[in-house]
Amino acid sequence: MSSLPEFSFSTTADEVAAALAAEIKGKNGIYLAPPSNLIQFRRWSNPISTVLITGTSIGGIGFETARVLAKYASLVIITGHNAERLKLSEDAIKKETPTANIRTLLLDLSSLESIRTAAAQLEDLDALHVLIHNAAAPIGPFKLTRDNLESQSATDHIGPFLFTRLLSPKLLSSNKTTFTPRVVWVSSSAHASVPAFDVNQVVGMGKDAVTEGTYEPMKVYSNVKAANVLMAVEVSRRSGGRVNGYSLCPGMVYTNMHQKEESLATLQTLGILGADGKPSTDKFAFKTIPQGASTTIVAAFDPRLDDQPGAYLSNAAIANETRAAHSADAANAERLWTQTEEILGEKFAF
Questions:
Q1: Any residues with CB less than 8 A from the CB of 82 and at least 6 apart, and which?
Q2: Hey, which family's this protein in (predicted)?
Q3: pTM above 0.90, yes or no
Q4: Is residue 1 part of a domain?
Q5: pLDDT, tens only, 216-234
Q6: CATH number (domain holding residue 311)
Q7: Number of structural domains found in the chain
Q8: Per-residue pLDDT at 325 exceeds 60
C-alpha cells in the first residue's frame, strides 16, 4: 500500500487503474488440493472485481469509468435507460478490450418500477463488490417522473437509495475478512454551495415538497448532491462496517450531460458554459473526462480508503476538509434516510 503513488488533479482514470490493478483484478493464492498421491497445488481466486456502474453512455464519466475498469475487472455491469446507447457503450468497450466481460442492464433510475425490474435481473449474481452511482438527471426545468417525484431528486437520490437497498444482499455477500464492499456516489463540490442542507428539497412531502412554482434547479441540484455525501456516511454507519460508502467530486468536466438542450440555459446562466454552449475555460479549471473519472476509480478500489469509511474525495484523493459540515452531520443523515424510507414506503436495514 505504501508503494502506491499519490494522485492529483491531472491524474487520469487509466493511470489510477494501472496503479490499482491488483486491487481491481482480485487476490490470488495457492492451496494444497487433496486427495492426491502427489503433492498437487491449485490456484484459488478471491475476486473483488464485480462492479456495477450506473449511467454509462459514451461521452460521460460513467462510460470512461467502465471502459477503464473493463481492462482489469472480472465483470463490469453497465446500465442505461436507452437500449441503443447502452449497446453502443458495450460495443465500444469490447472493441478496445475484446476480453472484457461486460453485462448490460436496462435501468431508468427515475422509475421505481424500472429499478425493481433491473434488480430482479441480477438475482443470478453471487456477489457485488462495488456499486457506483454515477447516473444523474439534467439540471433543467421542473419535471415530474411517472412516480410523481421531482426528476433530479428521483434520479440522483431516491432511485439510487432504492437500488442500493435491493442490491444490499449482493453487496453483503462479497464482504470477507480481506475485503469490504463499497458503494460510491458521484457527487459535486456544489453540495457545499448551500449554507444548510434542506432535506425537503430532496424528499419533501405534502406542503413541503418542491413544486413547479418553488423549483430552483441549482438549489435542488446542490441539495441532492449534499444528499449523496450524506448517504456515503450513513451507509457506512448503518452497515456497521460491512459496507463502506464514499462520495466524490469529479471536478468540472464537460460531458454529454452539458450538451443536453434542457440543461443549456441553466449552465449558461451559471457561467459554466458560454454563449456558444462550450466550456468557460477562462472562468473554471475544466478536467478532461479521463481526469474526471479518476476519482471514481480511487473511491472504488484504493485500499488506502479502507479505514476511512464515509470519506469525501476530490482530485483523486481524500478531501474531507472540503466537505460541507452539513453533509457530514449525523442528524441530517438520519433525517434524510428516514424521509426517503417514507417516500418509498419501506425500510432499509442492513
A1: 57
A2: Belongs to the short-chain dehydrogenases/reductases (SDR) family.
A3: yes
A4: no
A5: 999 999 999 999 999 999 9
A6: 3.40.50.720
A7: 1
A8: yes
